[in-house]
Design goal:
The chain is an alpha/beta fold. The chain has two domains: 154 residues, ATPase, nucleotide binding domain (Nucleotidyltransferase, domain 5), CATH 3.30.420.40; 165 residues, Nucleotidyltransferase, domain 5 (2-Layer Sandwich). Helices cover 42% and strands 18% of the residues. It has a five-stranded mixed β-sheet, sandwiched between helices. Strands 8-7-6-9-10 form a five-stranded mixed β-sheet, with helices on both faces.
Length: 334
């Protein structure tokens, strides 16, 4: 079964073709990072315009790279949300045009289910499992008892972890996107500053990063006011150590409570070297899988894979009334 995936939830225009929910035949990603760097973050209107400029080229390139024709495609899977509504609509409408023109069934996919299924490309899922979703807009612990069955155990009560990384980077005068830069600096630093571990001892699986972010910002401000020298590498290492401690500890508690067979870490922050190292060192009794680095950030291969498994589970497709939604509940995908 050939599935054409479409992903335009934020600032990557991506189209992919996969086979039988496993094999990636093509995965074309047109990134806008260099454009948005000038503004220190993603500008929604600019992102939408860039999607319009590149969408048809990316579609055709994905088909060409897969050595197929549009007539060979069996299903179109497109991100319907959550994300920037203008960006989502570009992808959804382009997918519907192809669906109508070539009479191909279409199915909407939740963006986060795509991130979770990115790990399935190279490592088979074994249920039950825990998925830790960490990105610029999401921090969640998800329990899966079977394919395309999502139970939310906990989530951030304020800032997502990726958002906290970007805000701390901005305060330290580091370039956008901040997460990879903080991670790189942290690797050469020592965690000599004491930062809090919010909600690490709470009895639930929720997260909070706004207090940690504020603590980092205030310490940076106070040290500057006192003309004290800030060691950027150690500052980043201390922040990253605090964040990863919380993420790993919550994941371990969920693993123990639900007696799962594997851990999946998904989302853009799954590329973080500190999180990868600490998670694998701390959990040794069951497998811990991270997606290949090229599948951590937004891409259409993960949407295509998730779309395949959603179709296999539900045997349902959408019609041309499918629409984008900036807010979409993952649990309702079940």
């Amino acid at each position: 079964m050939y599935v054409l995936g479409v992903e335009t939830s934020c600032d990557e225009t991506s189209v992919s073709v996969t086979l039988d929910g496993k094999v990636v035949l093509s995965n074309v990603v047109l990134s806008q990072i260099d454009i948005h760097k000038e503004y220190g973050g993603v500008v929604p209107e600019i992102a939408s315009r860039e999607h319009i400029k590149g969408i048809t080229v990316v579609f055709d390139q994905a088909i060409k790279d897969a050595n197929l024709e549009y007539e060979d495609i069996d299903l179109i899977a497109v991100t319907e949300g959550p994300g920037l509504i203008g960006s989502l609509l570009i992808g959804v409408n382009a997918a519907k045009v192809v669906s109508l023109n070539y009479n191909i069934p279409i199915i909407g996919v939740h963006h986060i289910s795509g991130h979770i299924y990115a790990s399935h490309i190279e490592n088979d899922m074994q249920f039950p499992l825990i998925a830790l979703v960490v990105s610029g807009g999401h921090t969640e612990l998800i329990l899966m008892k079977e394919h395309f069955s999502f139970e939310k155990l906990g989530e951030t009560q304020d800032d997502a972890v990726g958002e906290a990384y970007d805000k701390v980077a901005r305060v330290l005068g580091l370039p956008y996107p901040g997460g990879p830069v903080v991670d790189k600096l942290a690797r050469s630093g020592k965690a000599e500053y004491h930062f809090p571990r919010p909600m690490i001892d709470s009895k639930d699986f929720n997260f909070s990063f706004s207090g940690l972010k504020s603590h980092v910002i205030n310490l940076n401000h106070n040290m500057k006011q006192r003309n004290e020298e800030i060691n950027i590498e150690n500052f980043c290492a201390s922040f990253q150590d605090a964040v990863t401690d919380v993420l790993v500890q919550k994941t371990i508690e969920a693993k123990n409570q639900y007696n799962v067979k594997q851990i999946l870490v998904a989302g853009g922050v799954a590329a973080n070297s500190g999180l990868r190292k600490k998670m694998k060192e701390s959990i040794t009794d069951i497998p811990v899988y991270f997606p290949n680095m090229k599948y951590c950030t937004d891409n259409a291969a993960m949407i295509s894979i998730a779309g395949y498994h959603k179709y296999q589970k539900t045997k349902k497709v959408d019609d041309l009334m499918l629409n984008g939604s900036s807010r979409l509940n993952l649990v309702e995908e079940n």
